[in-house]
Amino acid sequence: MKHDLELQIQAWVDGELPEREARRIAQRVARDAEAAALAAELGCIRQALSRHKPSRALDESRQSYWGKIERRIRREAGVCRADSPLPWYEHWRKHMEPASAKKSPLVTPPCPPMTPPPTRSSAKTGAP
Amino acid sequence: MSTDPDRLALRDSDLVRLAQRGDLASFEELVARHRDAIYARACSMMRNEEEARDLSQDAWVKGWQKLAQFQGDSSFVTWMTRIAINLCLDQLRKQKKLRTESLDAMEQDGGSSVERRMPAANPNPTAGLERAELRERIDRALARLSHEQRTTLVLHEFEEMEYKEIATRMKCSIGTVMSRLFYARRRMASLLAGLRRKNSK
């Protein structure tokens, strides 16, 4: 089978062919066993992958994983000194938080509110 | 500012709205909810756990910085996954693991033409495999593809991107995308069928 035809069969399986081309390939698959076997195999792999996406779980604690992100967010916002770990009172605040329903004035975050920077683009779903 | 139990009960869209107003704790909750999914996708692309973890964290930092751009046209996790994918693609390009060469050069890539000539003797190479087993085998088979083939497959099958979008993101032609996808699938079929045969002996 020619490679062009193989790729067309694949495009047919993926629904990427215009209607007229799709009809032509469907007819070919219906009368050609080799083309039918290829289409079945490609379709099977497509289905298996889309239904069985590999999953992974991080083996790092939530606190540790988030801590690195938070430090970078604060650092890159230019709010805190570069390379500075969380100030001691932040650790204290995190430790105390579950025990107190109200926040005391002492636990005011050391940095101003972390507003995400305004953006020039107004991209919607596309990857930023 | 709400307490953490409050945030647990919130939907992603509500957390996003709070985070867009600067509430870092809401963003932390979003990270906790979706960190494994973002990490899993980075793992699929990089095949290196440490690198995938670092890139997933880069993605979250970037996600925060770009949060104002998110308008809810897709789910938050889909949007975040796209950010992670872009970072992985950049990293693979930096490492020169993704080439944008012509189809002719691809043909010389070891094994690809062998897969093409192989008859489709396994119209159902995954038959008889349990769900968990199949997932694990798919993961192992993915690890044996070239970076180009695996990335194309991940973008098409997991992210449901069309050929044209994959070509744009991978900076190659649609023809190259189609060819890489074809070889990747044929190799996956061969690997999965081979694994099944080995197991049944």
Polypeptide structure, described:
The complex is a heterodimer of chains A (128) and B (201). By secondary structure, chain A is mostly helical. Chain A folds into 2 domains: 3-51, no CATH class; 62-105, no CATH class. Chain A contains 5 helices and no strands. Chain A is elongated. In chain B, 72% of the residues lie in helices and 0% in strands. In chain B, α8 (131-143) packs across α11 (174-200). Mean pLDDT of chain B is 86; it is low at 107-111. Chain B has helices at residues 4-9, 12-20, 24-46, 49-65, 76-94, 103-107, 112-117, 131-143, 147-158, 163-170, 174-200. Chain B has 2 domains: 4-94, RNA polymerase sigma factor, region 2, helix turn helix motif (Rna Polymerase Sigma Factor, Chain: A, Orthogonal Bundle), CATH 1.10.1740.10; 103-200, Arc Repressor Mutant, subunit A (Orthogonal Bundle), CATH 1.10.10.10. The interface between A and B is large, with 56 and 74 residues.
Secondary-structure blueprint:
The complex is a heterodimer of chains A (128) and B (201).
Chain A: H1 3-13, H2 19-31, H3 33-51, H4 62-76, H5 88-96
Helix pairs in contact in A: 1-3, 2-3
Chain B: H1 4-9, H2 12-20, H3 24-46, H4 49-65, H5 76-94, H6 103-107, H7 112-117, H8 131-143, H9 147-158, H10 163-170, H11 174-200
What labels would you give this structure?
heterodimer, A: 128 residues, mainly alpha, 2 domains, disordered C terminus, B: 201 residues, Rna Polymerase Sigma Factor, Chain: A, Arc Repressor Mutant, subunit A, 11 helices
CATH architecture of the largest domain in chain B: Orthogonal Bundle
Beta-strand percentage of chain B? under 5%
* Structure class of chain B: mainly alpha
Number of helices of chain B: 11
- Output the radius of gyration of chain B: 19 Å
Show the largest interface: A-B, 56 and 74 residues
Q: CATH top level of the largest domain in chain B?
A: Mainly Alpha
- Measured as a percent range, the helix fraction of chain B is over 70%
